[in-house]
What does this fold into?
Amino acid sequence: MRLKLVTLIVRDYDPAIAFFTDVLGFDLVEDSPSVTNDGRPKRWVVVRPPGAETGILLAKADGDAQTRAVGDQVAGRVGLFLEVEDFESTYRRMVAADVEFLGQPRDEPYGRVVVFRDVEGNRWDLLGPPPNG
It folds into this structure.
């Protein structure tokens, strides 16, 4: 058993794709035409970190409830965790790309961490190995 996809609700596909591929370095795995349960056109868009098995389905908000959830899918908590091998270079690259960080990187027993917001405002942890690990 494995977790294949998680969904992030987005305002529009293309800015979200650009953020995940150009800023975070994810692969665009799929971008295919699809339809909603009631037959309206949509896209099936999946991104994922290189080498990862679990991907993110970027789902365009459909209706008021989903639109209200954009950027706050986990009620203001950090809900996604991006682990990288080279924290410092990833952090510097993201700063250069104008990613919004909520504080400065800090060292925790489990590693180096800093909170950032994605293109829609969802909070993520950028995680790296402990400084001496």
